[in-house]
Design a protein that fits this description.
The protein is α/β, with parallel strands linked by helices and 225 residues long. It has helices at residues 4-7, 26-42, 46-60, 63-71, 75-82, 94-102, 115-124, 149-157, 175-181, 199-202, 213-221, and strands at 10-13, 106-110, 133-135, 165-169, 184-188, 208-210. It folds into two domains: 4-20 and 92-221, HAD superfamily/HAD-like (Rossmann fold, 3-Layer(aba) Sandwich), CATH 3.40.50.1000; 26-82, Orthogonal Bundle (DNA polymerase, domain 1). The chain has eleven helices and six strands. Strand 5 (184-188), helix 10 (199-202) and strand 6 form a beta-alpha-beta unit. Bound molecules: magnesium ion.
């Protein structure tokens, strides 16, 4: 069995909580803005909005999808509103960036967020223009991971050879379709429980697990993995 670094030539990364810790405040801001959006759009108080927000996230994969399906919300408007974030709290991980730059082949961002969010975060973590492609929720026709259709579309769109592609994500559930389409799956265990995740049911689809993506890539680059 050859090492991952030799086998893989397409590296697909989730963004939030995979390449940086969104848990340090970015997600909290998004959740708050979503709550405000739902509250003002449906004309209900913020507490009730939070319940709906959570319900849609669970039932539809994203709050956005629930708002689109049930209330005809314009997705671009929604996404622009909930990503009016203070990005100054996000900074680079230079050790991780060094390891990312050693990987041979194409690098792709695959995010359930929108393009502007990805661009803003990549600028803050000093990886602007590093990725060959950014596949965002709009390109995925607003169908979020872990539904399999956007994975298949991404493979076609970027002409990905699945046997030589690896996907990294902090949500184990998102790696089930990744594995099913033929990617090598790498779970970044960010050390917290995402209420929408199902780690137990996803376990057998995870080729690799790590709590530290920098260390993992360091080992890949050394040929240890
Ligand atoms: Mg993530």
């Amino acid at each position: 069995m050859s090492s991952l670094g030799k086998q893989i030539n397409t590296w697909i990364f989730d963004l939030d909580n995979t390449l940086y810790s969104a848990d340090s405040g970015i997600f909290q801001q998004v959740h708050e803005l979503m709550g405000k959006f739902v509250s003002s759009h449906l004309n209900i108080d913020v507490a009730d909005a939070k319940i709906i927000q959570k319900k849609y996230y669970k039932q539809h994969g994203t709050t956005l999808r629930g708002m689109m399906d049930n209330h005809g919300v314009d997705p671009d408007h929604f996404l622009a509103e909930v990503h009016k974030l203070d990005y100054s709290i996000v900074g680079p991980n230079l050790k991780l960036n060094k390891e990312l730059k050693k990987l041979n082949g194409r690098k792709i961002i695959y995010t359930n967020a929108n393009m502007q969010h990805a661009i803003n975060v990549l600028e803050r973590i000093e990886l602007s223009n590093f990725f060959d492609e950014i596949y965002d929720i709009k390109m995925a026709n607003y169908i979020p991971k872990p539904e399999i259709a956007p994975y298949e579309q991404m493979i076609n769109q970027f002409d990905i050879n699945v046997k030589s592609a690896a996907m990294f994500d902090d949500i184990a559930k998102n790696l089930v379709p990744a594995k099913n389409v033929g990617f090598t799956s790498v779970w970044i265990d960010a050390g917290y429980e995402n209420f929408s995740d199902d780690i137990q049911a996803s376990k057998k689809y995870l080729d690799h697990e790590t709590t530290n993506i920098t260390k993992f890539l360091e080992d890949v680059n050394k040929g240890k993995i």
